[in-house]
Design goal:
Layout: H1 8-18, H2 23-27, H3 33-40, H4 48-58, H5 62-69, H6 76-85, H7 93-109, H8 114-132, H9 136-150, H10 157-164, H11 172-187, H12 195-212, H13 220-232, H14 236-252, H15 256-272, H16 276-291, H17 293-297
Helix pairs in contact: 1-3, 6-7, 7-8, 8-9, 10-11, 10-12, 11-12, 12-13, 13-14, 14-15, 15-16
């Protein structure tokens, strides 16, 4: 259960006074007036249950209270997690290396944090694959994460986020099972904060796994669902990134005109918003795909299902 520092009460007082809510209005049915006075002075720490009830009376969420308490910012750990979420669906070195350096700084002061430690393992695995084009070392790095999840009946939001970035490292059998579990578990978080971004990321990373395994055609249902979710939730950058993935699928299906329209649509969007990094990444990926199209065209497709 989450614990709070004593100064959380000072933040509660600031919000209460700003909203012109009287103390007697806040305490009703929750705590005594004397306890509220101690909490607001920072002399007593409220329990998690009490804080949730007080938030309801104040008309804010617990997440917002913590955000306000942190001076309208996030903790060092939350900042790392947000950076991890923003990683593109690629194996580019620079963003991974930069985040690893930030993690090392954080872990120097917070060594027991297993979540951030697992995040670092996934990033190191990605760099290993990119450098050596081999998966043995990467598999060893993420093996403890997969073993932990295989012993859980339920996967939680962090689990889904961390494992979706490492699907491509697993063996075919492990990947099939992991992909199906990812999709089923992610669906349970449909109404959770940031889940739409997570589900799209899961689908895009499934595409990456299938491409690495020369099974691009098998990725079509995942890319189609990703595009649909992007449209529903108006996530234009990921939507137009997904069009470039769809272009590869259409090219392999023999729909050359459709493929070029999709890649032109994708590149045109990133040129319009002046995102040179993504524009160049997508352009390079497309050119490499065309250079190696025969490899993808004549490889047996993996059957995973959706």
């Amino acid at each position: 259960m989450q614990s709070f520092d004593k100064n959380i009460g000072v933040t509660i007082k600031e919000i209460r006074e700003n909203k012109r809510i009287k103390q007697k209005e806040l305490v009703g049915g929750i705590i005594s007036m004397s306890n509220l006075l101690k909490i607001e002075k920072g002399e007593s720490t409220p329990s998690y249950d009490k804080v949730v009830l007080l938030c309801n009376k104040l008309g804010i969420t617990l997440t917002e209270l913590i955000y306000c308490h942190n001076k309208y910012g996030v903790t060092a750990k939350e900042e790392i997690i947000q950076d991890y979420r923003r990683l593109k669906n690629s194996l580019e070195d620079d963003p991974f290396t930069n985040l690893i350096n930030k993690i090392d700084t954080y872990l120097h002061s917070n060594p027991p944090d297993y979540q951030i430690t697992e995040m670092k393992a996934v990033l190191l695995a990605a760099l290993s694959v990119n450098k050596t084009q081999k998966f043995d070392e990467a598999k060893e790095l993420v093996k403890p994460i997969l073993e932990r999840l295989q012993n859980q009946n339920e996967w939680y939001h962090f689990d889904l986020m961390i494992i979706s970035q490492s699907i491509y490292i697993f063996s075919e059998d492990d990947a099939k099972e992991t992909i199906m579990t990812l999709i089923n578990q992610a669906d349970k978080y449909n109404y959770y904060v940031d889940n739409n971004q997570l589900k799209i990321s899961v689908l895009m990373n499934i595409w990456l796994y299938l491409k690495i395994n020369h099974s691009i055609l098998a990725s079509e249902p995942y890319i189609d669902e990703a595009i649909h979710l992007c449209k529903v939730h108006r996530n234009l950058p990921l939507e137009y990134t997904a069009y470039s993935r769809k272009a590869e699928i259409e090219m392999l299906k023999g729909n050359k005109d459709v493929a070029y329209k999709l890649i032109d649509k994708s590149l045109g969007f990133f040129k319009y918003i002046e995102d040179d990094k993504l524009y160049n990444d997508i352009k390079r990926d497309w050119e490499l795909f065309l250079e190696n199209i025969d490899v993808y065209k004549y490889t047996k497709e993996l059957e995973i299902g959706i």
